[in-house]
Amino acid sequence: MTLASKSGGRLIAVAGPSGVGKDSVMAGLNGAIPDLHLVRRVITRTPDLGGEDYDAVSVSQFEALVEDGAFAVHWRAHGLYYGIPITIKYQLGKGTDCLVNFSRKALAQAAEIFPRFVVLNITAKPETLAHRLAARGRETEEEISKRLAQADKPLPTGLKVIHLANDGPLSRTIARGAALLQPVSV
Length: 186
Ligand SMILES: Nc1ncnc2c1ncn2[C@@H]1O[C@H](COP(=O)(O)OP(=O)(O)O)[C@@H](O)[C@H]1O
Ligand SMILES: O=P(O)(O)OC[C@H]1O[C@H](OP(=O)(O)OP(=O)(O)O)[C@H](O)[C@@H]1O
Description:
The protein is α/β, with parallel strands linked by helices. The protein contains 8 helices and 9 strands. This is Ribose 1,5-bisphosphate phosphokinase PhnN.
């Protein structure tokens, strides 16, 4: 048994404002770091809108999953429901590091649930966010405005946080992110 499997894997919660590049950085880190598990979220979003790979469900299906205890953590944002499958605990128990796109408002709750919890806080300038959300084309202009209005939501205090700027080329951010996450420091 390795040291990692004795103490369990890290839950690496990727946080930051809409358009900052959370999904893009996660996909890159998944390619750059061997054995990292990219967590697939359950979302009440229309299927196949691009970006992350997610399980699309209806609100009533989501509520039934909550009732069944299918989620380790869940939250509501942008008029949608998001759930992190309870099976993540199996991955962590095996000693596998798990990378998951998180809400800033769910971080404090998750820190109490997961023993090896670290936040990967992605940042970028406000003008970068606006440009990227428009270019992504997944949301309407009204939805984009609402997301931008929440851009400077603070992180809770007292958490282990790794800060990663994503204003420059994505490849550079991924290389820096991979270096910051390895060797294991939490
Ligand atoms: N470093 C970068 N340089 C240029 N475009 C980027 C960069 N990072 C992400 N993007 C683009 O910005 C948009 C938003 O990225 P995304 O990963 O969906 O962000 P988030 O998940 O934080 O909302 C996407 O179209 C993505 O391709
Ligand atoms: O509380 P906040 O930190 O503001 O986060 C709210 C939600 O925004 C993101 O979702 P999603 O990936 O659907 O949106 P995004 O790609 O525009 O960030 C994030 O994963 C949360 O689910």
